[in-house]
Amino acid sequence: MIGSNALARRLVAIAGIAGLIFLIVPLVIVIPMSFSSARALTFPPPGLSLRWYEAFFGDARWMSAMATSASVAFVSSLLALLLGGLAAYGLRRAPVRGEGVIEANFVAPLIVPTIIVAVALYLGFAKIGLLGTYVGLVLAHTVLSVPLVIMVLTVAIRSFDFRIEQVAWSLGASRAYTIVKVVLPNLAPNVFAAWIFAFISSFDEVIVTNFIAGTWDTVPKRMFNELILEINPTITAVATLLIAFTMLALAAVAVLLQRTGKLRPTML
Amino acid sequence: MPSRTAVGFIAPLLLLMIVVFDAPILYMLALGFWSKQGGFTTEHYGNLLEATVYLKVLASTLRISLIATIANVLIGYPLAYWMRSLSPRAQLVAIALVITPFWVSILVRTYAWIVVLGNGGIVNSALINLGLIDEPVRFLYNELGVTIGMANVLLPFLVLPLFAAMLRIDNRVLQAAASLGAPARTIFWKVFFPLTIPALSAGALLVFILSLGFYVTPAILGGNRVSMVSNLLDKLINEIPRWEQASAISTLLLIVALAIFAAYRHFDRRVQS
């Protein structure tokens, strides 16, 4: 007979493992389905094939959506990184009036429900003629990525010893030279992490894009609209590619941060 | 660095945020009080109380969000508690398994449930093969499917901070209770659980705020039969253009979300201190 404590521990372990399975089962199931030879979504797949990958890469609309997604994610993440990096540096290196309000404003897009951002940007962009434009899409994605950049970089800049910069200045280096040659090399892993997070956040964005993109098609927007209409197994291939892309990007961040001893267990 | 230089560093981003975030939200707030004939009106807010369709959607949004939050607590608390008992190496693996889905596109995670829970999906085939059912269970295109999908997408938001808070609980406190003769059950309910209440409350509130604005999951797993506020907003903007009405509903949702966020901050500060 097992004691009630051992029984309780076993129940907790079962509940914990069940919770983990619940969390990852969708990702684990979708991957083999993408190699299915059948049109129906039956599991396990009756046979293996690459037909859904062929369907994806052979479809000009998917390829053009891919190009739009990549270019919007690239431009908007770099813009968020540049503006967010400068702002995070300015906020941490000198007292500024209204600092708390300004910082709250920078992370607000993460707190305000995205659907509200979507409605507000739709109305605002309609007013100033940015609705359905590439510029509007890039600016909206930039704003949504800014909180991630600010959060990652303010922590990094705060932990970077200010005296190192002061040494560089006292040796006659200009402020710009100090940032490029002293601050950036030291914060490179964090900057890289912030960039990857901003890129993924833009590449996956669907709600705001669906409202404001007009005729521009991104991969998530196209995926969303296909899912509403019909279930096409090509989506399993797209989903698998997105999972692979995300895991590679996260692994790159984890490896880099671990090498430089900057990995924190609960880094989001 | 002098403050004036710092302002120079901050100004470009601030300008972007004002133009592409603050101004559109303020414009939306104003539009909710704007009459089609021009001038100030509160009719769009009056409509919310009069038209039963809006009240129905608000009620079902609150109900689904509440159920998804409770499901999250019931699944997430044991998971975080179990993770705390693992070895450091196993903990890293478990954290990686919780964080990875967090970063994978919400579309992928929602879509995967169609594969898992559909009529020919893995759950239904397993149940039929085991002889437990004759007809596939309809998991999808109803509130059940939406709730399962939402609970899955939101789980990392609860588990990660809760697990971090549990790690901070000093084992010696639990040992002290044990050395005084308290049985394991009493230690858990009288010592451990009360210490995790602030983190649990903060996590649950965060999950609830995020639930209120869910758009993708109800649209895909609800199959037009389950409507939440976000899907209503989509209709009012993209299908039957009633922008002022959409603005009023968004304003209401924004106020609710910010109020719950204030409560979240209250609990989160207690966790940090």
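qc> Chain A has one domain: 56-259.
qc> done
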